[in-house]
Amino acid sequence: MTREEGHDVGTDSGTMEDTHSQEPTRLILNNSRTAAIVNICIAFLTYLAIPSQRYIWLWLIIGVAVIRLIFHFWYEKGSDRCYNLNSLYFLTLFLVALQGTTWGLASIILYNSATDFHRFYLIAIICGMTGGAILTHAPSLLAFACFTIPAVVPLVFTLLLQPDKSFRLAGYMGVVFLLAIHLLAKRISESNLEILRSRRCLEITTEELARHKDHLEILIKERTKELAESRENYRQLTEEINDAIFVLDSEGRITYLSPAITAITGHQPEETLGLHFLDFIVPDDQQLIREKFQKVLLGLHEPSEFRVVDNTGKPHWVRTSSRPIIRDGRPTGLRGILTDIANERREMIEKAKLLQRIQDNQKLEAIGTLAGGIAHDFNNILSVIVGFCEITKMNTAENRFVCDNMDKVLKASERARGLVRQILTFSKNTKQGRELVEPHLLLREGIELLSGSIPKTIKIVEKISEDSAPILADPAQFNQIIVNLCTNAYYAMKENGGVLEISLDSIMIDAKTVNVLSDLREGPYVRLQVRDTGHGIPEESLPRIFEPFYTTKPTGEGTGLGLSVIHGVIRSMDGAITVESKRGEGSIFTVYLPRQEGGRIATTEAYNAPQGNGEHILVVDDEEMIAYLVQELLSSLGYAVTMTTSGKDGLEKFLAKPSAFDAVITDQTMPDVTGTQLAYEIKHIRPDLPVIICTGYSDILDEEKAAQLNIAAFLNKPIRRDILAKTLRGVLDKKVGNFS
Question: For the chain: N or C, fewer Cβ within 10 A?
Fold first, then answer.
């Protein structure tokens, strides 16, 4: 409860007569602090200006002022209590009169002890005090009189009784001043009371208006409740759903667009009003949507998907569904909803890419299966060619012409063997012949090999880091990556020349990069980049460049296997390859291969052909020529050989005399008993007997699986005489098997 409310409760009624005492009392009480502080300040200044032997007047003024301050603070803190108005009023008048009396007493004391100059100063102080009292006490004429009469009259009488004419005139002037100031105070008090009455009348009028206003508001709320609910439902429908609602006139101009359009396209609804809806549609889609707009006006319902231009100028996919607005039997426009389908479109594109990738993988698997079968037969053929060439060389060592020709055949066979290994790597991601190598050394060798075949119009720039860690790779395969990438770059620049930049450095693949290069794992990698400034790759060809037999070169200039082969090689090395290209700006191929931290580089030992000591070897191969070839090779090395072309027959020969054999060399892929099955049966009887398995190609057995089956050695066809000799000698001497 406020002080004013407390005062109202303390009175007997709320009539206009309360204004004569209630408001003046409140104003005087609120001014008490100001009056008390001013009195103390003036008293202190008077003390400093007018010397006096007695200072009791000062303490009286200060004491009464302090009492008024205490009374004021008591009144302020008790604002939530109800007071008796009359008691407060008369107590306030008493304190005001007491304060005036202290000043009257002070003026007599100071006048008697002061000089003439100080007496005029004292008169000025008393007059000033009286004038200032108008501000703090004039709301009540009685309160003003209670202060001014006891404060001024003693000094006026003292002046009138003085023998000096000047002081008597000052006394007369004091009487006139006292009368004039009281008349002024009366006018102020009456004006204040009039203002209070007017304010009270205004409050009563305001209360009446407020009551009428409340009544009208109740009526308005009751009358508009249904309308408000309807508008709220409409607002929620148009503003809070994700789809945008639009209204068009018969000409196609936008007459309404809900705020949801901002979230979809960035356009503000108010910016689109009055504009034609085709202004916001991608030009390529405008003709189709113009036709569908006319169909909807005729009553045909045809949802549409098209692209609109957002506030950044980029196309944005949306779907619309609309109905015509019929008035007086004719269409005046249409209304409908607009749905954001950008994410849906992106998901469709990603799904299409994923399906294409699955189809590509299935295609590669099918080709790989075919390539594996061809490689098996081709390696068997190469084994015969290589083996009999070596036998022919041994038997015609004195004939230089024959030896040279045999060397050429062996060299061609080795190239054919490398081609088969590349096809197998592409088709089945085999990991044959991998070892720790220094990539920067191999890269420099490859560049040196290429530099002689690349014309001077192409400048080779090397950026090769020397501190790259070793990688696990087949040196021939790594060289094939370099040759194929650089050959592609050369082909792109052979007409106009350019710059071939080859760089090698180390990089750490983090989680963010893995999201882009999904074939990689986090960790350290060696990064090989081949950059050219040629004509670039067409955008439509980029997704297909790693497909087998796909080429952009003219007929007769390319097989389409180069990039597909190195793609398979890189995948077999747990790496990845990416390509960036723009027409007219060139291409960048980037290869990522995992680093082998702390690995030791393998050293290469010269091959020789160690001789046998008459050990008895069982040779099993379903290809008669290969079985005969191995028999001839081993016989030339000093071994005793039992040969058979059937796995079942080989097992029977072994079971007949298990202790007669010192080692077994068998083919893996045979129709009746496979090499692993034969090895299992033999090991079951003689665990100590070393078994060497040879294969042209097998997707069931590799080096790791052979080691797990306790196979002594695993050799890939075609097998050279020196490798066979060293491997056999090693397993017989209980050395580690030599896999190649």
Answer: N
- What's the first-to-final CA gap in the chain, in angstroms? 103
455 is written with which tokens?
A: 């014309």
Ordered structural domains, the chain, with CATH: 3-209 (no CATH), 244-340 (3.30.450.20), 349-410 (no CATH), 439-594 (3.30.565.10), 616-732 (3.40.50.2300)
On whether the CB atoms of residues 729 and 608 are closer than 8 A, the answer is no
CA distances to 363, 485, 569 from 587, rounded to whole Å, are: 26, 11, 21
Question: Which residue blocks in 452-524 are alpha helix, DSSP H?
Answer: 475-493, 511-516
DSSP 174: H
- Return the pLDDT at 421: 66
Q: Give the pair of three-digit tokens for residue 251.
A: 């000409």
pLDDT score of 84: 66
**So what's the pLDDT on residue 419?**
62
What is 434-465 written as a DSSP string?
-EEE-HHHHHHHHHHHHHTTS-TTEEEEEEE-
Alpha-carbon distance of 512 to 367, in angstroms, equals 33
Q: How far is CA 282 from CA 273, 306, 309, 322, in A?
A: 19, 8, 6, 19
**Tokens in use for 642?**
């039992």
Q: Is 383 helix (H, G, I), strand (E, B) or coil?
A: helix
- Chain-centroid distance of CA 111 in Å reads 88
Tell me the two tokens of residue 658. Answer: 């298990």
Nearest-5° Cα angle at 81, 79 to 87 = 95
Quick one: CA torsion of 707, 713, 715, 720, rounded to 10 degrees?
Answer: 160
- Token pair in block for residue 172: 């007369």
Q: Which residues of the chain have pLDDT under 50?
A: 1-19, 429, 431, 555-560, 602-607, 736-740
- Tell me, rounded to whole angstroms, the distance of Cα 391 from its chain centroid: 68
- Give the C-alpha separation, 279 to 226, whole Å: 39
pLDDT for 521 equals 81
Question: Cα(408)–Cα(401) distance, rounded to whole angstroms?
Answer: 11
* Dist CA 485 CA 469 (whole Å): 22
Residue 62: HSE in the Cβ half-sphere, 13 Å Cα cutoff: 11
